[in-house]
Amino acid sequence: MSVPQRLSFVTIGVRDAARSRAFYAGWGWQERPGGSDDFAQFDVGTTRLALFPLDRLASEAAPDADLPAPGTWNGITLAVNVAARGDVDQVHAAAAMAGARVVTAPVDREWGGRSGYVADPDGTRWEVAWLPGLLPG
Amino acid sequence: MSVPQRLSFVTIGVRDAARSRAFYAGWGWQERPGGSDDFAQFDVGTTRLALFPLDRLASEAAPDADLPAPGTWNGITLAVNVAARGDVDQVHAAAAMAGARVVTAPVDREWGGRSGYVADPDGTRWEVAWLPGLLPG
Q1: A22-40: per-residue pLDDT in tens?
Q2: What fold characterizes domain A76-137?
Q3: Partner of B100 for a Cys bridge, out of A120, B83, B118, B124, CB 3.0 to 4.6 A?
Q4: What is the pTM of this model?
Q5: Is the CB of residue A97 less than 8 Å from the CB of residue B3?
Q6: Equal CATH topology for A1-62 and A76-137
Q7: Which chain A residue shows the shortest CA-CA distance from B72?
Q8: Does the model's ipTM exceed the 0.90 cut?
């Protein structure tokens, strides 16, 4: 048996579940029914984005490691691509208006697109990106 | 304009692109054409998993933050769900045989399923999971 090429869940370990749930709701994201005080999930294409308390996720996924320090970047980025170059700035601004922290303003990239970054309450980086002719997700 | 509920890319900042590319190839994952020495992408459902050098990703996504320290957990987990309880142990073992570091052996979870964790070369946590009646991705 091999490892299926599949991404079923991306789970973000959150320091304050209510705060994070409100954050994504503020983006207009629709939570799946069946959540609890400490678990929320959102359909993002075929994958689900889940929020789960950081300490509980750590006890499963990193029982022998330190918790990530607040304010550090975790080495991963998540991206919301948009259909048009001009949408990058508008969606980036909308994400910030709804409570995201602006990390970098949108700029044209050497790889041919345009993107900018914001962060969720735990510092998870979200890239709002446009690439010509490409809209995965 | 709001923020589309979409996950276009999950990008892992990697310390050694060749090592990480070989790691996922070892899982049997098929890379999309068009990659380069320092960029690889894999279709995982509607989302793409991308590998990009950590320092270059940091310059875009976290220009003012320290790089994550090697060996630390980053607060996020990625999951490959499987169709049957018994598949968890087999896929977990296959992932390890192909070079993943075992973080935790599969166990039955209080939330009703079974799962275990492995880590990729940069410590990214992958959960091999089964949940009754649920196979997103």
Answers
A1: 999 999 999 999 899 999 9
A2: 2,3-Dihydroxybiphenyl 1,2-Dioxygenase; domain 1 (3.10.180)
A3: B118
A4: 0.96
A5: no
A6: yes
A7: A65
A8: yes
- In order, the DSSP letters of B50-74 are EEEEHHHHHHHH-TTSPPPPTT---
Split at pLDDT 50, 70, 90, the class of B134 is: confident
CATH homologous superfamily of domain B1-62? 2,3-Dihydroxybiphenyl 1,2-Dioxygenase, domain 1 (3.10.180.10)
Q: Using the beta-carbon criterion (under 8 Å), do A2 and B94 form an inter-chain contact?
A: yes
- Residue of chain A whose Cα is closest to the Cα of B129: A8
CA distances, B136 to each of A42, B13, B70 (Å): 12, 25, 31
Of B75, B117, B135, the CB nearest to A54: B75
CB contact under 8 A, A94 and B62: no
Structure tokens at B110: 């209080």
Do A130 and A82 touch, CB atoms closer than 8 A? yes
